Amino acid sequence: MKFLGLEIRRTSGGVKTENKLPSTPRQAERGSLLFTPNMSRGQLMQNTTVSACVMLIADSIAQMTCNVYKKTDAGRIRDDKPNLSYLLRKRPNFYDAPFTFKQTITTDLLLDGNCFIFVAWNPDGSPRSLTPLPPERVKIRFDNNGDVYYEYNCKGTIYKYRPDNVLHIPAYRCGAIRGFSPLAYAFHAAKLGLTLDEYTNDSFDGGIHSKLLIEVPEDEKKFSKEDAQKLKERILSAYGGREHANDPFIVANGMKATGLDLSTNADAQLAENRTYSEREVAKIFRVPLYMLGKDDSKFANQEQANTFFLQHTLNPWVVRLQEYLNTILTYPFSSDHYVEFDTDTMLRADYKSRMEMYTKGLVNGVYTPNQVYERENLPKTSEKWGDQHFMPVNLSTVDKIAAQKPEEAKTNSLAADNE
Questions:
Q1: What is the C-alpha to C-alpha distance for residues 363 and 343, in angstroms, rounded to an integer?
Q2: How far apart are CA 100 and CA 116, in angstroms?
Q3: Would you call 243 helix, strand, or coil by DSSP?
Q4: How far apart are CA 173 and CA 28, in angstroms?
Q5: Cα angle vertex 49, ends 43, 54, to 5°?
Q6: What is the mean pLDDT of each run of 10 residues along the chain (419 residues)?
Q7: Are 307 and 319 in contact (CB under 8 A)?
Q8: Residues 54 and 110: beta-carbon distance below 8 Å
Q9: Which of 45, 233, 278, 368 has the smallest count of CB within 10 Å of its CB?
Q10: Cα separation, 286 vs 270, whole angstroms
C-alpha cells in the first residue's frame, strides 16, 4: 500500500527461530507499520537537521555528571564506594571516557532505538566495565525455555550473552522487545530533507538550470535519434557543470535554441519545503527550533530556555538511562543507592543570579559556606563554621514564643531590636 508516495508494509509478528516462541505480550513481537525502505544510521546522519538534533541531545546529556547517591536518615549523600560510581565518573571501559560513553549510548537510543551495554562483572558481584555494543550487530533471540539471550556479531564471530551480561535499554518498545527510535515511524521526514539537499546540490552542480528546446531546420530530414543523442552530449559537455554556467550558448547549421518556461526553484517553493522538513525533524526529537538556529527564542533569558529544553527534551532520556543503570547496582548497594544525573550544569545561571541565590540560601540556612564553595569549584575551609547552617536570630517557632513568659518574651524582643 502507498501513502504520500511511500510504500508501506506490515511487518510480520514474531521472531523466526527454530524454537517455540513465548506467547507473553512482553516477549512476543507484534506487527507494526514501518515506512520502507528504512534508512541506515549513516543515511540518517547525512540529514543535517537529524545530525544537529542528535548531537545536541547526546552532547547535552554527555556533559552531565552521573553520580551514585545513598539515602540516609539525614538526607542523601553522594557515595563513591560502589564500583559503578567509578565507572560512570572516571573510566567506564578501556576505550571510552565518561563523556564518550554517555554520548555513544544516547546516540544509539536516538538513531537505532536501542542501546546495548556489555557488563563485565567482578568476582564479588560488582560491575568491572561497561562497554557499548553497536546495535546493528546485536540480535535478540529466544532459547528453548522462551528466555531471552543476545547474539553479538564481531567480525563474523557470533557471541551469545545472557541478559546478565547485556544491559538492553530500549527507546520506545511499542509492544516489542527490540525498541524503536523516534524516527522509526517517520523516516519520510528525514528522507525528504535528504532528497531536498541532493536536489539543491544537483541543481547548482548542473550549470544549466533551465530546459532547452533545440529546433532543427525542416530540410534536414535525416536527423535521427542517434544524431539527437550526439547533439545532447555535445551541449552537455560544452555547457554543463558549474565551470560553464556563464558561457554563451552557440548553435550552428540553422538550429535554434529556445528556453522552456518550466517551474523554477522559487515556484517549487524549495526554501519553504526545506524549512518544513527541518521543522518536522525537530518536532520528532522535541528540539526547539531556536536551538537549531532556525527561529528566535521566545524566552526572557537563557536560563528559562535551558529549563524548557531540559524538561521537555532531555528529561525523558535522562530518566530512562537512570532507571536502567540502577539495575546494575547489586547487593549490598541496591536498597538505598541509586544513580542520578546532575542537571545543574543545564540550569547554571549568570554570576549575579548565582550570588543572589547563594546569599539567600546562606541567610535562610539552606546552604553551608562549604557547600557554596563546592558548587563554585572553590577550596573548602577547614574551619568549623564552614559546615554549619545559619539562621536569623530574630526568628523562632510559634510554640517556643507561646511557651515563653511575658518577661522573657519582652527581653528577647528588646535584644532583637538592639541587634
A1: 25
A2: 15
A3: helix
A4: 11
A5: 80
A6: 46 39 37 54 82 93 91 84 90 94 95 94 90 94 90 91 93 86 78 67 54 67 72 73 64 69 54 76 88 75 80 93 89 78 75 80 86 82 86 71 61 54
A7: no
A8: yes
A9: 233
A10: 24
Cβ(78)–Cβ(67) below 8 Å:
yes
How far is 239 from 250, CA to CA, in rounded Å?
10
d(CA 337, CA 331): 10
The conformation of residue 64, written as its DSSP 8-state character, comes to S
Nearest to 275 by CA among 292, 259, 252, 254: 292
d(CA 236, CA 249): 11
Q: How many residues does this entry show for the chain?
A: 419
- Could you list the beta-strand ranges (E) of 5-73: 6-10, 33-36, 66-72
Q: How far is it, in rounded angstroms, from Cα 173 to Cα 170?
A: 6
Query: DSSP class of residue 386?
Result: G
List residues bridging with 150 in a β-sheet: 140, 161
Specify the pairing of strand 2-3 against strand 166-170.
unpaired
Give the start-to-end residue ranges of the domains of the chain.
1-131+170-206+264-348, 210-263
User: Which uninterrupted H or E stretch holds 117?
Assistant: strand 114-121
CB-based contact 169:203 (threshold 8 Å) = no
What backbone torsions phi and psi does residue 264 show, to the nearest 5 degrees?
-95, 180
Asked if residues 231 and 223 have their Cβ atoms less than 8 Å apart, the reply is no
Name the amino acid, one letter, at 33. L
Is 76 in a helix, a strand, or coil? Answer: strand
Q: Is residue 380 classed as helix, strand or coil in its secondary structure?
A: coil
The answer to whether the CB of 33 falls within 8 A of the CB of 185 is yes
Say which amino acid occupies 363. Answer: V
Torsion 373-374-376-379 (CA) sign: positive
